[in-house]
Amino acid sequence: MPSTDLGNTRGNERDFIQSIERGFAVLHAFDDKDPNPSLADIATKTDLSRPAVRRILLTLQRLGYVTSHGSRWSLTPRVLSIGQHYTSSHALVDSALPKLVEIAEHTHESASLGVLDGNEVVYAARVPVRRIMSINVSVGTRVPAYATSMGRALLAWAPHERVEAVIADTNFERLTSLTIDNADSFRDELAQVRGRGYAMAAAELEEGLISIAAPVFEPGGTAAGVLACSTSTGRHTLESFRDLAAKQVVACAERLSEELGYRMR
């Protein structure tokens, strides 16, 4: 289950409702690898007892978020309303979409908006041009922050405490032979991103994937999100893609930052 930054509320256990945590754990058990799990599958994934999972599933079914097909369960379209409420209530998403279209038209490559959630980046908006990743990237897809240009652009300007919290919660698994696999190298990379003004990653999340990302700042100066553009090594080298996309991505991110109230120094 993805980690969540609860800030100071984490210290007050009296305010923590465990049944809600378990309900979300059950919802997170549905994924692209197993979209129709059985009750036993969900119990295994969540480390919850079968009676507890059964009660949660029946509650979610009554609320309209899951449905059953024999011994198998699946999500219903109602779960999409949760994400829709996020996008409709955040000016960042609406303001970012024209910039993503502009990036995609300039580069003829896919463009994305990412936001940080714990130690992962969540795709909040996307303008796809072609599929370049083995996973099916769509709004809501999560990727590890440490292995992506989006995560690095988000964290390079984050408060020190936030960066260290993400590092402490990261396993630094080697996803490819080029993946940064330790905290010190990651800190060094964040320093390079700050000096460069944007982040790059090549064949770190998966083989053949190149991406460039630039931060979108909120008025306080921290990154509220990130604009990114991705390609494959079959069409570009890192250098040729940087020449094509970096200025465009940075320019669009700067304009979006200004629209959100950030004043560039």
Fold and architecture overview:
- The structure is a single chain.
- The strands form 2 sheets. The chain has a 6-stranded antiparallel β-sheet with strand order 5-4-3-8-7-6, with helices on both faces. A two-stranded antiparallel sheet has the order 1-2.
- It has helices at residues 18-28, 39-46, 50-63, 80-89, 91-107, 149-155, 160-168, 183-196, 238-259; strands at 66-69, 72-75, 110-117, 120-127, 142-144, 199-202, 209-217, 223-232.
- It folds into 2 domains: 7-78, Winged helix-like DNA-binding domain superfamily/Winged helix DNA-binding domain (Arc Repressor Mutant, subunit A), CATH 1.10.10; 90-259, Beta-Lactamase (2-Layer Sandwich), CATH 3.30.450.40.
- Helix 2 (39-46) crosses helix 3 (50-63) and helix 5 (91-107) runs antiparallel to helix 9.
- With 265 residues, it is α+β, with helices and mostly antiparallel strands.
- The model is unreliable at 1-10 (pLDDT under 50).
Question: Which secondary structure elements does this structure contain, and how are they paired or packed?
Answer:
Layout: H1 18-28, H2 39-46, H3 50-63, E1 66-69, E2 72-75, H4 80-89, H5 91-107, E3 110-117, E4 120-127, E5 142-144, H6 149-155, H7 160-168, H8 183-196, E6 199-202, E7 209-217, E8 223-232, H9 238-259
